[in-house]
Design a protein that fits this description.
The complex is a heterodimer. Chain A contains two helices and seven strands; from the N terminus they run E-H-E-E-H-E-E-E-E. By secondary structure, chain A is of the alpha+beta class. Classes of the chains: A alpha+beta, B alpha/beta.
Chain lengths: ~80, ~350
């Protein structure tokens, strides 16, 4: 199982803030899965954190990993 | 009794910490929902010099969260109103009001005057610009941003080689990607919390109390008071789009690069036009004056716009303008929807604006 935590507009569009799922693969594959399962995320900008570390490159996911989808906020 | 007795008696601060606050020079960018509480707490704590930069005036819808202003301030410049509020209460704090927004032109002269910057702006263009400028000038930046009931907080550029905003979000958003506060609504107390945390982070950095959010980002959610923290690694690969010289910084058109909104100023539009293949379209009736006689400008009054779809779709970017920017804003929004084209903008303030090309020479 991996845990996905969603923030800001990503959580709002997906309609939930936490997901738990069986997943094997890397973060690119996870992003592709998310976009096909939640087409409403199209056009939304976000970065990923794996186990509370921001990543910009494709990263292999392990059992029990936690992935966060973090969109930028601009409001002030 | 002394004004700072209750904090000097705190062992972590002490008289030495108070003296550091007294000599600190802090620039607050944006005197809105985040800037107001940050300024208020910094002044109360005895920060020596606070610069406040904001080009906006107070409007009635600001009052739910911009706590330095009241009914009587509506229509006044925010920076000056904030300075007046602080001067009346804390005459020992020097407040410098800049009643204009920070720009690539004025930041290089301003930044050397300050030790630390607080980002309380409300749009991506300003946030990337301030990040890049503080990175260039090696000034620590207390970053804070909100979306509805959530906030983000970090301390960037703390020292040589520490992370900045580009390590979190390397590239500026593309047109139409994310709405800002003005469109999405915000509970006033949320920027109050995040702005206060920004003041705390500034005070901690200046006085050396505790651990600042260096190479870390904090996410706060008001709904359940949950806090999520993640680490950030500073990497050259994240900063390919970050200007590394003053010249490149000053040539960067942040407003256009982050044009997630419909409205763009004349200057940004004209600067962007040669690079984007863009056209300007005057959507006014032919009798409305003055006209802008320029090869880049087409004249298509509103009733004829739909018939000229092919012409407008060919251009990568279309800047619509009218007399004051109201009609063009409405039409740009409509055309984006019906033609599904994001590169349609409305020029802020229209032809009557002081920066329009019939008044200002570019």
């Amino acid at each position: 199982m991996i845990t996905i935590k969603m923030f800001g507009m990503v959580a709002e569009k997906a309609g939930c803030s936490t997901l738990e799922l069986s997943f094997e693969g890397d973060t690119d594959q996870l992003a592709a899965w998310l976009h096909s399962s939640y087409p409403q995320l199209k056009g939304l900008k976000f970065v990923l954190a794996v186990n509370r570390k921001i990543i910009h490159d494709n990263t292999r996911l392990m059992q029990d990993d936690e992935v966060a989808l973090l969109p930028p906020f601009s409001g002030g | 009794m002394e004004r700072f007795e209750r904090q000097i008696s705190l062992a972590e601060l002490g008289a030495a910490g108070q003296q550091k606050l007294r000599s600190a020079r802090i620039l607050v960018a944006g005197a809105g929902g985040l800037g107001c509480p940050a300024i208020l707490y910094l002044a109360a704590a005895g920060a020596g010099t606070i610069g406040v930069a904001d080009g906006d005036r107070v409007s009635v819808s600001n009052l739910n969260r911009q706590i330095l202003y009241g009914q009587d301030d509506i229509g006044r410049f925010k920076a000056s109103a904030a300075a007046r509020f602080i001067n009346e209460r804390y005459p020992d704090v020097r407040v410098i009001a800049y009643d204009h927004p920070l720009t690539v032109e004025n930041l290089p002269a301003l930044l050397p005057e300050y030790d630390l910057v607080i980002d309380g702006t409300d749009n991506f263009a300003a946030r990337y610009m301030i990040n890049d400028a503080t990175a260039l000038f090696h000034k620590p930046l207390v970053y804070g941003a909100v979306y509805k009931l959530e906030g983000q907080l970090a301390l960037f550029n703390a020292h040589e080689g520490s992370a900045n905003y580009r390590d979190l979000y390397p590239e500026m958003p593309a047109p139409g990607e994310i709405p800002n506060c003005a469109e999405s609504g915000v509970l006033g107390v949320l920027p109050g919390i995040i702005g206060t945390m920004q003041a705390a982070e500034a005070i901690k950095w200046i006085t050396g109390i505790g651990q600042c959010l260096i190479n870390r980002v904090l996410f706060y959610n008001l709904k359940d008071h949950s806090v999520y923290e993640t680490t950030l690694s500073p990497q050259a690969g994240n900063r390919l789009k970050q200007p590394f010289t003053l010249k490149v910084f000053q040539e960067t058109n942040y407003e256009m690069a982050c044009a997630t909104e419909l409205n763009v100023g004349w200057k940004a539009a004209i600067q962007a036009a040669p690079r984007t293949p863009a056209i300007f379209v005057d959507i006014r009736e032919p009798e409305e004056m003055p006209r802008w006689n320029d090869s880049r400008c087409l004249e298509i009054p509103i009733p004829h716009l739909l018939r000229q779809k092919d012409v407008l779709m060919q251009a990568e970017t279309v800047f619509l303008f009218c007399q004051h920017g109201l009609r063009s804003q409405m039409i740009a929004g409509e055309l984006r929807k019906i033609w599904n084209k994001v590169g349609i903008y409305s020029v802020k303030g229209g032809i009557a604006h002081p920066t329009s090309p019939v008044i200002t020479r570019y």
